[in-house]
Every structure is written in C-alpha cells, then in structure tokens.
Predict the structure.
Amino acid sequence: MMQNWGLKKKFFIIFLVLITLPTTLYGIFIYSQTTEVLKNQVEEDILERLNKDEQNLLSIIRDVESMSSYMIYSDDFRRFFTTAEETSSTYKNSVNGIKGYFTFQLMSNEYISSIQLQGMNGNKLEFGEPVFGDEENLDEAAAGGKGAPIWSDTYKVTSGWGGEKYVISLSRVINDLNRITYPIGTVRIRLDQEKIMRSLEVKQGHYLVMSKSGEIILHSNQKFLAESYDDPAFVHWVNHGEELVHDFTIHNQDYKAVKKELSGTNWTSVVMVDEKDLVKELFTVRKSIRNMIILLLLLGVVAFYGFYRSNVKRVIELTIQTEELEKGNFSAKVDVSANDEIGRLGMRFNKMVKTIQRYIDTEYKLKIKQKESELNALQNQIDPHFLYNTLDMIRWSARLENAMETSEQIEQLSKVFRMNLNNGKTWVSIEEEIAYINSYLDLQKSRLGERLAYFIFIDHQIKKSFIMKQLIQPLVENSIQHGFKELPHQGIITIRCYQVEEQVWIDVIDNGWGIEKGDHDTGYAMQNLKERLAIAFGAPFGIQVVEVKQGAKIRLILPLLLNSQENL
C-alpha cells in the first residue's frame, strides 16, 4: 500500500515515525522515570523523618513513663501518698521535694501541660496549668491497669489559662514499694497536643497519629483531634496493611500516605501528602525535559521544512508539470535551481518538452491537416446527393403550386445551403444544427405533405455545446428514404438531444419499417457518417442502434464539447 502513497505523504510519515514519535516517546519515558525516581526519593525522605519523629515520640513516652516510675521509688512521693496529716513537717517536706522535681520537669519538657497527684489517703496536688474536664474514665482505666502506665487518646479540657485545648495523658496507679499490689495513689501527667506537634520534624503534608480504634491522637489540624477517621479502608490499612506506602483518593484528590508504628504503644504515625505537593520539587526537571522535547520537535520541523523545500517540493513540481504535459500543455517547464540529481532531472524534462514540441510542429500538425482534409472530402460527398433530391422536389412543387409556396421552399433551401457551407467551419453548436435540421424537414414536409410529421426536443443546457455539422441530417434522410418508403401510414420522426454525464446523446426515432427492412444501417449515408465519427472521435463514441418494437431508433453518442473544436 505504501508504494501507492504520494511523496509528500511518505516523507511526512517517515518524519512522524522516525523523528517525532521516537523523540516524544523517549522524552515521555525520561520524564516518567525522573518523576518516579524523585517521588521515591521524597517517599524515602518522609520515611526518614517519620523514623525521627517516632524516636521523638517514643522519647517523650519513655520520659513520661520514667517520671511515673520514679514516683514509685521516691521517698517524697511515697510520703505524700501515705502521710495523713497535711500539716506535718514530713508532708510539707515531701511536697516541697515534689514541687522541685516537677518544676525541673516542666522547664525541661515544654510539652508537659500539668501533673496531678491523688493519694488514697485523700491528699491531692496539682502542678502546672490548671485544667478542668471529665476524666473519670481515665481513673477507671488506671485502676484496671493495676500499676501499668495507661495512655489516653486525645481529649478536650478547659484550661484556666486560656480556654479549651487538647491533651494526651498518662494515668497510673502508684503501688506501695513493699506491697507491690497495694495502691497508695494515682498520677496523671497531661501533655499539650499542640506543643508535641511542634516538636516533630514532619512539615510536609498532613501528619497524624492514630490509635487502633481509628481515633486521631495527634494531627496538624486540631479540628480532627479526638475524632474517628471516617474512611474504614484507610483505618484498616493503618492498623493492618503490610505496605508502608498507600495511595488513596479523597474528594477527587490523590494522596500518598506513609505510616510508621510507634513501638510500645497502640499508636501509628501517618503522613498524608497531596500528590501535587509531592512533585513540586520535580517542576524544574520536568520543565527542562519538556523544553528539550519541544526544542527537538521544533528542530525536526525546521529540518522537515528545509528538506521539503529543497527536495520534495521540487519533485512534486516536476510531477505537476509532467501532468500538464500529459494534458497537452506543451508550455510546461520546470524551474531548475540546483545542479543535483533533481535539478538534472528537471533539465532533461525541459529538453524532452522542447523535443516533443518540435515533433508536433514538423509531423503531427501535418497529420491533423490531413485528417481535416479527409473529413471535408467525406462531408462534401453528401452535398450533391442532397442537392439533386431537393431540386427535384422544388421542380415538382413549382409545377403543382403557386409561386408563393415555391418562394418559401427556395428560402428554406437557401438556409440549408448556408448551413452546408457555414464559412468552411467543421463545428457548429447543437442549436445551429437543429435549426438546419428544422429547415431540412420543412422542405421534406413540403414534398411529402401529411405523409410526414416531425418533433424535435433539445435540453436547454446543451444548446451551446459543439458537434460536427450535418451529423443528424443523414439519419433523418435515411428514415425518409428507406423507413417511410411505401409506408401505409403517416411517417413520424422524433429527434431528442440530451446530456448523459459527460456525453451528448442524440436519438433519431421513426415509426417506419424498421432497421432490417428500412436498410438503415447499410446505406451510403450511414457508412459515410460512421467514417466521419471514427476519424473525429474514435471509441467509445459513434452510432448505436437501439432495439424498439416499431420503427427504428438510431443514437449518436458524442463527447460534451463546450468550446469550438475548430482549432484542434
């Protein structure tokens, strides 16, 4: 199939397949590979930061749990929990020791919001930020833990220093050192959620810590704190998924999540990053790759245009001029602008056109003149035969009629003579030919009277097209001479001229004896007409006999010529 394509199409396909497509695909490949590598790098960086934050959170948890464990072994804390009299020096000394310890811890760890001690003897001590809230469930959980540290989820409290806030607390029962299962008091250490978040390193995306129940412990946006995450699939991945990285969509926005379990707790830290934010760092590289692809494509287009103008266009121009030569335009010429192979081909083409023109001038024009002479000779053979019959008719009319009718007949005869001569022209319009036939039939009707009737139909759009003169007259004469000879009824001739595609069809129909008896196809006039058409046009044009039930139908098939052929 490709061998039938034009040169322009072939070159375009080659340019597209071998230059544009590989460049685009390779650029896309590099683009995607670079994006993937940098995305992986970003993911590794996030994981590294998560590891650091895990250590920070675990360090906080260990420090707070160590504080609570210290209270078991500290004499000050044991005396506070076991001394009944608050006015005793023992109690006061223990409280002073505890306050000193707590002051150090609060100054060293800003994330500690407040500390609460509650002795089984009814002694109570609050230190740090005063807070108020429902913490009964935490007391029950601590009692159930029987001395183990119990971490709460995030919950809301009211601060005496500045309204509502979110905290995380460790609650623990302090048992007697000597009677390990005997509780002597409880401790609650509250941590400020917002200050914990500030101590973490993850700044990209949304950072959160989630419990096994799906409740959000820590979050960069406080409105989500103490709420359950509303995506069961996401919660399942956090708690049970094996992959550390998870892609998911929220509100038609793509996110990438990275998780890290906090060892020793039932919490998991998660970072969710918008895919668009994840690739912000790729924009410079992606822009450079895109610009490189565009530059290569532009260079390819310039190369394509240059090669097209310097080579393909000249070949196409040579093809166009060759087609013009094929149509008979011997002024076809190729502009030669270079001495390469295409230029030398153009010079040979111009030389060939001149050679053909010379042959036409010296040989073919002579043959055309000879052809015209043959046509004229055949055409002139018709005139005497017609003239003798017409003069005979006028002679009988003059004898039988008055001079007025004879005058009219002579006038019609003069029209026929003028058309015959036609200033030596071979080609006439169909309108002129029909006028000639009309005069001829008027003369014949004057001779035959009621024995002859005729009808002529012609399509308006072909009136100005050209045919050789006296093509219809021999067919009409043949119908009268042979088809109507001794006919027992009125002879009727119908002439129809119409267009069929790029051809002119002329039907001459009579109601006479028919083809076989009427000798339509073998008479001298018919043979003369066939020879004229064969010389002038050749196949597929000529005479066609159409079979009909009565009479004869002869069809002339001619080319549709809108210009005079006199100079051909």
